[in-house]
Amino acid sequence: MRTPLLQHQLPQAWRAFPLTRRVCVNVPKSQWYAQKVSKAQTGGGTTTPVPDDAQPPKSRAPFYFEAGYALFAKRPSRPFPPPFLSLPSTSFSEPLSTHHQSRDRRPTVNGQMIRGVTNGDDAVLVSESFIAANDGVGAWAAREKGHAALWSRLIAHFWSLEIESASYSPTSPPDPVAYLQTAYELTKQATSEPNEWHGTTTTCGALLGADNEKPDHPLLYITQLGDSQILVIRPSSKKVIFKTQEQWHWFDCPRQLGTNSPDTPKTNAVMDRVEIREEDVVLAMTDGVVDNLWEHEIVENICQSMAKWSRDDDGRDTKKQVQTYADGMRFVAQQLVDAAREIAQDPFAESPYMEKAIDEGLSIEGGKLDDISVVAALCKRRKG
Question: Quick one: where's region Disordered (predicted)?
C-alpha cells in the first residue's frame, strides 16, 4: 500500500523532505512480508473494449500493435460508485429504476462507456496504436470518498479519447503530454460533480507513430509520470532498447495525478521519442512487475515466452493455427504476470522492492504483494 499525498501532510512534507533526498517513511505491517491471497483475481485479453459506435481514430500510422494483456489483482476490484455505475433497482415500480439498463453493467462517464480494464486499483488500455498502464494508489481505499481505481481508469479513458480525436502525422507529431493534461482535467471534473471521489494514480503510455524517412520507421511517443514503466525489448538481440525512469517524491511515494497531489502532466510528465523496429516488443507495466522482477529477468522471461509460443505455432498443433499474434502477446503477458506473482507471494524471495527498502533502512523481506498489470505489444507493419 503506497503513500498518497494528503492535504494535511503536504505542506509539512515539502518543508521536511526536499525532493533531492531519499527518506524513510512508515510502511504498514501488512506490507512487511509477502503473503498469499485467497480472493485474488486474474484475467487477460487482447484489446480492451470500445463502444460499438466508436469513431475510428483520425490519424493512423503505417504501423500498429498486435497486443495482449494479463492481470493479477491482490484483491477484487471495488465496483465503481454512482453515477459511473448505476446498479439496477430491486423493483420495476420504483421511479428511479434502471432495469432497462440492467443487462449492460459497463461503467459510463458523460454518457460514454469507460474504456480500458480495471485490475484492483490498476487500469490498462490497449488499442492498435496506444497502450497504457496506470497504477492507482491503494491507500485511498481506507479514506472517505477514496476510489483510486476510478481515477486510474478515467485517466486512461480520457487519454485514449484525446489521442483518437487528435490529428497528427510525421510532419506534425502528436503531443501525448498535452492529451494527458486534458485527460487529467476531465478526470478532475468528472470526480468533482455530482459526487466527489478522491484518488491518485501513476500513469505511463506508448503511442505508436512513424517518422518521415524513406523507408519510414516506427516511432514511439512514450509518456511517463510516476513509477509504472514502459520497456522496449528487441527479442532478436535480447536487448533493452529503452525504458522509462521512475519518478519519486520519496520512497514508496511516486509522482501521481489526483487529489491533493502537486503533480500535473504539464509540469511533471516526461515524453520520449524513441525509434524502434518492426518485431520489437513494447511493455506497459505497473510497479507490481518492476518491484518483484529485475530488468534482466523481465527480458529473459519475454524472450523465452516468445520463443516458446513461436515453437508451438509451427503448424503441428491445429489449435495454434487459428491463433493470432495478439494471442501470442497475451500469452507473453501472462507468463510475465505469473513470474512477478510468484515473487510477490514469496515471503523469502529477493526482490527489487526489498533492495530499495533496505537502502532506506527498512527491514522488509520477500516480494511486494501488489496488483500486477502487463500489456505486451508487438510492432507490426500494416499490409496494403
Answer: 36-57
